[in-house]
Amino acid sequence: MGIKESLEAASNVFVKENLLMVAINDSMAKNGWKLLEESFRSSDFFSLFCKKDSPLKRISIKASALGNMLKVNIIGERASRNSMEEIIDSHIYEISKTFNVNMYVTDDIEMSNEQLLYNTVCLVVKELEEKLT
User: Fold this and answer.
1) Strands 69-78 and 56-66: what pairing?
2) What's the CA gap between 4 and 38, in Å, rounded?
3) What's the domain range around 100?
4) Does the pLDDT value for residue 6 go beyond 50?
5) How many helices (H) and strands (E) does the chain have?
6) Could you give phi then psi for residue 75, rounded to 5 degrees?
7) Distance (Å, rounded) from C-alpha 129 to C-alpha 119?
8) Residue 113 — φ and ψ, nearest 5°?
9) Is the separation of the CB atoms in 69 and 98 below 8 Å?
């Protein structure tokens, strides 16, 4: 593989990672979460969401690309009721998931397995809400 092909392959991987992160954010939005903040830097991603009718104050998504994998940390934060509760009881819970980029984004830069991705994101959000209520 020549330099040109290597650069094209690297660029393609970067595009796939970005598309997968956008799809994760879209899954959150389809589940009623409002995007407050979003940052895409090289191979690191950050998103912040809130939802009025959720027991969670907010959900943060931090992701980083590792080869053809996207390691995603989804962090739920419950609104603390008082300062003593904050000391005694954790109001933050984190769930980590690793997504194979090639399973969700084809070489033609098209999404695949969108329903699986949506279901996975919804299950993680539900688990966060259950753990923090």
Assistant:
1) antiparallel
2) 31
3) 3-131
4) no
5) 4, 5
6) -115, 120
7) 15
8) 55, 40
9) yes
Q: What CATH number does the domain containing 112 carry? A: 3.40.1000
pLDDT tens figures, 30-81: 999 999 999 998 789 999 999 999 999 999 999 999 989 999 999 999 876 6
Could you give the CA distance from residue 123 to residue 116 in angstroms, rounded to a whole number?
10
Instruction: State the total domains in the chain.
Output: 1
Average pLDDT of the chain to the nearest whole number: 87
- Is there a contact between 49 and 34 (Cβ–Cβ < 8 Å)? yes
Report residue 63 as tokens: 């992701």
Q: What is the pTM of this model?
A: 0.86
DSSP assignment letter at 111: B
Q: How far apart are CA 35 and CA 44, in angstroms?
A: 17
pLDDT for 24 equals: 98
Provide the 8-state DSSP code for 59.
Answer: E
